[in-house]
Write a structure and sequence with these properties.
- The chain is mainly α.
- It folds into two domains: 4-49, no CATH class; 58-145, no CATH class.
- It is built from eight helices and no strands.
- The protein has helices at 4-13, 19-35, 42-45, 57-77, 83-99, 102-105, 119-129, 136-145.
- α4 packs antiparallel against α7, α5 (83-99) crosses α7 (119-129) and α5 packs across α8 (136-145).
- The longest helix has 21 residues, at 57-77.
Amino acid sequence: MRWPELELLRRVADRRETDEDRVEIAARLQLYLETAEKGLTLDDCFGLSVCPGGSPWWRREATGRRDAALRLLARRHHGGRPVARQAAEIRAGLLRYAATAWRFDRTKSEPPSNYLGTEREIQFDILRVHEIILSERQLQRILSAGEN
């Protein structure tokens, strides 16, 4: 998922902005300063506002990362099996990890080095985004969406 507005903000945050970016940021900030009293938010000014009932940009990005990690886990460690079986195996593995090592790993920002290259590394990445373990049906939908 690409958000040009977020790319603009990230370039500025990383100090990689162009002169055009500076002009754009200044214009959007000016718009905010002039209209905040009428209820316009910074999210509105940067095109990041959410429709009622919608998910904010940061949650959609996180969900996209989780879904990509789930598809990677299926490809690398459960390939060649039907999607329903992949979903069941992935869910079982996530439940096992959540019940054991995740309680120690959850405070870490990176997976332990002994996880690198293993299924546990990807499980760490998945739970780091969302600790709630999805149902088999939800997992099947995510894995099937990756086949298209």
